[in-house]
Amino acid sequence: MVYENLHHAIKKPALQRLMDELVEEGALQVKEFKKTKLYMAKQDVNETVDQGELDQLASEEGDLKEKLAQQKSKNAKLQAAITALQNEPSDEGLAALLKQYQKKVDELNAKLARTKGSKAPLVTKDQVNKVQTQFNNMLSAWRKRKRAAMDMIDAMCGEEGEPKAVIERFNLETDEDVEVNLKEWTPLQKEAKLSRK
């Protein structure tokens, strides 16, 4: 088996001589079973370790494990910092972004200057009132339709049913499904002030 484990690096006769020499030197002991020789390391050559040394080694192992955990934690934090830095744009990228945003600012400033320089109102009061009236009408219609739909769903539920179950059963679309909230729009409802002619 030694010959096989050495992957035939040493020829069998040379290996046999080496093993026998180690037996003579006292590093190995041999047991013979018919044609088979069994070589073993001598146990009395190895130093024995007392319980105190074993306890100390166990304590050192615990300390080293704790230090390893701390190092791994530091390493993870440093790796996260490196990743964050690598995701930041380069100087060239920042320069390009700055140029792009500066162009937008210049365009908006030019538009603002044109607006400030214009003496004619951009939107008349009548136009504002007209849009406000349309908005109020649409918001009122939304409220009425929502109330009517909920009344119909409640009627379908009966006394013991859940509206949510009816909505799911008939695959109905709610305000929440389309991410709108009636309460968010209510503050925009104002009375339209009609101009006097």
Q: Could you walk me through the main structural features you see in this protein, from its secondary elements to its overall organization?
A:
The protein is mostly helical and 197 residues long. Among the domains are: 2-41, no CATH class; 125-188. It is built from 7 helices and 2 strands, in the order H-H-E-E-H-H-H-H-H. A hairpin with a 2-residue loop joins strand 1 (28-33) and strand 2 (36-41).
Q: Topology of this protein?
A:
Blueprint: H1 2-5, H2 12-25, E1 28-33, E2 36-41, H3 51-87, H4 91-117, H5 125-157, H6 163-169, H7 182-185
Antiparallel strand pairs: 1-2
Helix pairs in contact: 5-6
Task: From the structure above, extract its key features.
about 200 residues; mainly alpha; two-stranded antiparallel ribbon; 7 helices
Q: From the alpha-carbon coordinates, what is the Rg to the nearest angstrom?
A: 44 Å
Overall body shape: elongated
Tell me the number of helical segments per DSSP (H or I, 4 or more residues long).
Answer: 7
Please describe the biggest sheet, giving its number of strands, its sense, and whether it closes into a barrel.
2 strands, antiparallel
Total strands: 2
Low-confidence stretches: none
Short description:
The chain has helices at residues 2-5, 12-25, 51-87, 91-117, 125-157, 163-169, 182-185; strands at 28-33, 36-41. The protein is mainly alpha-helical and 197 residues long. Among the domains are: 2-41, no CATH class; 125-188.
